[in-house]
Specification:
This protein has 177 residues and is of the alpha/beta class. It is built from 4 helices and 7 strands, in the order ββββββαβααα. Strands 1, 2, 3, 4, 5, 6 and 7 form a 7-stranded mixed beta sheet that branches. Strand 4 and strand 5 form a beta hairpin.
């Protein structure tokens, strides 16, 4: 009786594995995304800023829920499960272009609580997704940010590109005053 692995050829060799089409979106490069999945959502002009206390920094990992503050944290939708959580924000920033050039065109802030020691957190994923969409639609929502957080965010945006800040709408600038 000839016992062969069902995955071998008559010569006993392994056939080449079929090449799988990768599901990947190009969200952080300067190139336009083309190919599989193109046209669904263009995230090339979307960035995320994390505000953690009085510190603000750009962290593109937030687009995939893998920012520095989110890694290793199990998030739930019940705030009461994170009594010792510190307030952090993900701010979605959309860079738009008009006849004058690129500017910070949309900006929305999403609250979350993070307890690093307990590895627990709170956030409403639907709110984060909706506000990401609002930022890409050039809306400005900075509700809930205190003066220190607004100043930190304003500082990161100006430091990153002062020209984009200057071309930004007065509504966006006044939301961070």
């Amino acid at each position: 009786m000839d016992v062969r692995d069902s995955n071998t050829t008559p010569g006993g060799e392994q056939p080449p594995a079929p090449e799988k089409k990768k599901l990947a979106l190009n969200v952080v490069s300067n190139k336009e995304h083309r190919g599989f999945g193109a046209g669904s959502i263009d995230l090339n002009n979307l960035s995320s800023v994390i505000i953690d206390g009085d510190e603000a920094y750009i962290d593109l990992g937030a687009i995939h829920a893998k920012s520095k503050v989110e890694r290793g944290i199990k998030f739930g939708m019940n705030k009461d499960e994170v009594p010792n959580g510190r307030k952090c924000w993900i701010v979605w920033v959309y860079v738009g272009r008009d006849e004058e050039g690129p500017s910070y065109a949309g900006l929305t802030a999403c609250e979350m609580l993070v307890d690093t020691e307990a590895r627990r957190g709170w956030k409403i994923l639907a709110d984060h997704v909706n506000k990401m969409d609002y930022a890409m639609k050039r809306r400005v929502i900075a509700d809930g940010l205190n003066e220190t957080e607004k100043a930190a965010l304003r500082g990161v945006l100006i430091e990153h590109n002062a020209e984009w800040w200057e071309r930004s709408s007065e509504a966006l600038k006044s939301a961070l005053q």
